[in-house]
Write the structure tokens for this entry.
Amino acid sequence: MTTRRDFLIGAGAGLVTLGLGRVQASSHPVSREVAEDGGQYRLQGPFVVSTWSHGVPANAAAWEILDSAGSALDAVETGVRVPEGDPDIISVGYGGRPDRDGHVTLDACIMDHEGNAGSVAFLEGIKHPISVARLVMEKTPHVMLVGAGAQRFAVDNGFEVENLLTPAAEKEWRCWLEKASYDPWPDPADPNAAHDTIGMLAVDTAGNMCGACTTSGLPFKMHGRVGDSPIIGAAMFVDNEVGGACATGLGEEVMKTLGSFLIVELMRQGLSPAEACHEAIARIVRRNADWKEVQVGYLAADKQGRCAAFSILPGFQFAVTDREGTRLLDARSWAHPEAAAGG
Ligand code: ASP
């Protein structure tokens, strides 16, 4: 086995290869790795990072743009459109699990390197909310459109209204209806089952960072519930002078602590991405006696290419892609004994 130092200089190491889980096909070599020494990684040149294993194909789409000197904004939009359009990914876009009334309602946000932002929330019938969020940023004087107004704006700009409830998601919902217990807490047997938002950060060859986040939110949420994903500074924030952060997990906790903004501000004050993610998780843990039942994961990267992720419970994964290829990595967690060391 090689050392983490080897990995940092590009040899793929300090790492144990464990297998690929739910990873889909990618044009890049993928390895699932466990980092030593605080779980912080060094990426080279342009890069893209994103949450969960569906980040692997999403990163591949984003990387095609970055690798041909495209913009980070195009990269993050194109990247997260992959899970949005995949009916087998039950937590984002088309195929997402519905709310308790059977409606698939989507939240998304995007930020560019100049601090411009756009978002949509409680949007129904539009397969690619991230592209609507980008149009809100680029074509309106506003940052956020919600519900029917967001849908009308999308239709006015050429988007098609489609039924996003797939037979598989409808079946799951009908099964849930048998008990109809509204419980946003994760299943203790699989704390990550309810959480699969994609957040993505990319740096292009010009050195600019942009970010995106998109989700169908908590499964079987109350009708009208909006999570952290469209809230700028909660589930995603980018400051091109410093870096960016994105979140997944129980959105209510992320919103109450404005986690992504917090992480970026902590990095501005000199904390590493690993230390900043650790502190943002600590803020949630400290205010929740029942933190063992809550999953939140943060992923952060700074402009120097340092990248880290940290979650409350184990199981959170993130995908990183640069010229060395794509790696699917296990985040450290608060609940894991090694986690307390932070970065
Ligand atoms: N953060 C998302 C939300 O609360 C869900 C998730 O990532 O699991 O809507």
User: Anything to note?
Assistant: The chain has one domain: 44-333. Confidence is low (pLDDT under 50) at residues 1-29, 339-343. The chain is about 30% helix and 25% strand. The first helix runs from residue 4 to 8.
